[in-house]
Input
Amino acid sequence: MATGTRILLVDDEPDLLDLMELTLVKMGLEADRATSVAEARGHLAQTRYDLCLTDMRLTDGEGLEVIAIASALATPVPVAVITAFGNAGNAVAALKAGAFDYLAKPVALDQLRTLIKSALKIPALAQGDDPTRELIGNSPAMQDIRARIVKLARTQAPVHITGESGSGKELAARLIHRLGSRAEQPFVAVNCGAIPETLMESEFFGYRKGAFTGAETDRNGFFQAADGGTLFLDEVADLPLSMQVKLLRVLQEKKVRKVGATQEDPVDVRIVSATHQNLSTLVEGGRFRQDLYYRLNVIDLLMPSLRERVEDIPVMARFLLDKLGGSAIKLDRAAEQALCAYAFPGNVRELENTLERAVALCEAQHITCADLSLAPPALPASAHVPGGKYPLQDYLDQTERVAILEALEQTRHNKTAAARILGVTFRSLRYRLERLGID
Output
């Protein structure tokens, strides 16, 4: 730890203050103590701190007030809160208010040390170095997303990213990790919809040798692999209810038990989740646990669809073409206008696939509208006026095309999985792909 690093401890229990101060001293850190919100305010006004640890319940107020005071400083101080055991509501409220992280009483010293180490190495963006520029586009929507990602990176709060398939949810998750205190630790991405239900527990938590037939050695799961870093749960809505219960326990206890083990092992993992589905709707329908939803959705980040930021399409197309074949490939004006007019149900991923196909088809490195092979424009959703859904076959084909493309994008072009989502057989899907000319 850096010499001169100073931490403010705020608690009205002398014994806990003594314990935390002793721990900090052994780590080579300096500590000041406060027993109330008023005392904490005075310390924060007079001294520059690297971190503040505060209890949620104080004699003259709450830890949320300390968070607000520390966040309003010219140089904001990261704040971690200490909550009563089992009081998840307080922890979530603190994280939503901007707390860096939380600890539950009784305070485990190993977790305290881990939290302090994470808080004290939050990286600052180097001059001119902005990884969020990997999110291409200068529309107001993308500027807001980049600013939010920088803020989210400075906390340990669970983040739930929503948005349509192909809108960049995993890229946003990776940026939150890279800009945060865990940047040097693992980032483990898991597609929850691609794991058979029978294997989920062993894949997530690992297993001990002999736990089941074929378990010839001990093996770590996703949580152990991401220990110290970030675990990204993509398409978290696809988790079965039985797995949701087990995941909730891990998030609460910060411990995992391997299949076949008799004891739990501590893990230090930040959770970032994502889905293109509406979790609150799934909660109402009984398909997703409400308590897990509140644990995952502490802070939400909505990735805009490509059609909501049409002004970004030309610059994004240029970026993707440079990546695919160099600056020699040109996109004519009519083709650019066609891209801007297209709805892109598959968003950025579909745009990249479209341009990759066009690069292969174009002549003399010059892309025209014909090279793009875009689907006909969809009929407006409000087409309830007479003739709005006619000719009927064209309308049905377009509706079917959009549904199939969305399913393929969601499953990363796994046709078997897409057929299951659509509720048709694999053979039926293959026939429909051929009939609609979808490659």
User: Anything to note?
Assistant: Residues 378-387 have pLDDT under 50 and may be disordered. The radius of gyration is 25 Å. Residues 403 and 434 are 15 Å apart (CA to CA). Residues 380-439 form a domain with the Arc Repressor Mutant, subunit A fold (CATH 1.10.10).
